[in-house]
């Protein structure tokens, strides 16, 4: 795919642009977001699945406008603004925390559909373990593979593939989703990363070399899971056209991205 010559921050396109336009009017619940961001997409998935009214506010987190910094001093997206009775703004950040918050607050299943964390305490705890695993293993490996060069990048590739195999062992064998028939929070947390597989094929020459049926039962389970994520309507509705992601990910792959996250990875600090 040729990378478009875009120097400025591009805009959302395709299905995502349509979805954002539908949520552009004033609402008490506000999401400060960047259209390209996988962490933002997690929150969008929850809002979309539960059909929660909210206002979508696009900000460029690399320029960190004052409106964002006033809410979140680290200037990261997603930042959610929660309405209060006295009209003050209460911000929330960290995508997985926001997702759990929304699942708890919009919990009436007759209005908002199935809960995203299981009712059973053991299953709920197990889901949280694997959500944490995505944050502590899969995401760092994702960035290491994408941003680093040579041996460091190879270590990222190895860790990424090995950790998705571990995650795959935990997927319900019948599926298609992590807990079975219905999507749940682990799918929301890993879905946007699965949806960005092509980034590695494009920039790291991976050539679609992901775990699959040729690697045995777990590979087959993962392959089936990837198809479920890619065919998931909520993912499709919140994703832009691929070409629009290219210039942004190219900066990461070329190791010139200036975001806090990119710098933390390069300097070997914990990622924000
Ligand atoms: N751990 C955070 C990560 C959020 C994050 O890193 N967002 C990126 C965009 S994908 C961002 O705002 N980057 C701006 C920067 O790093 O300066 C979460 O899960 O919400």
Write up this protein:
Keywords: Oxidoreductase. This protein has about 270 residues and is mainly alpha-helical. It folds into 2 domains: about 90 residues, Glutaredoxin (3-Layer(aba) Sandwich); about 150 residues, Glutathione S-transferase Yfyf (Class Pi), Chain A, domain 2, CATH 1.20.1050. About 50% of the residues lie in helices and about 5% in strands. It has a 4-stranded mixed sheet, covered by helices on one side. α2 runs parallel beside α4, α2 crosses α8 and α6 packs parallel to α8. The radius of gyration is 18 Å and the shape is globular. Glutathione binds next to α13.
In short:
The chain is mainly alpha-helical.
End-to-end Cα distance:
30 Å
At the fold tier of CATH, the topology name of the largest domain is Glutathione S-transferase Yfyf (Class Pi), Chain A, domain 2
Number of domains: 2
Please tell me the CATH architecture of the largest domain by its name.
Answer: Up-down Bundle
Structural class: mainly alpha
User: Whole-number radius of gyration?
Assistant: 18 Å
Helix proportion range: 40-55%
GO molecular function: glutathione dehydrogenase (ascorbate) activity; glutathione transferase activity
Keywords: Oxidoreductase
Domain GST N-terminal: 27-110
Protein name: Glutathione S-transferase, nitrogen catabolite repression regulator
Key terms:
272 residues, Glutaredoxin, Glutathione S-transferase Yfyf (Class Pi), Chain A, domain 2, 2 domains, four-stranded mixed beta sheet, 13 helices, 4 strands, globular, oxidoreductase, glutathione transferase activity, Glutathione S-transferase, nitrogen catabolite repression regulator, Glutathione-S-Trfase_C-like
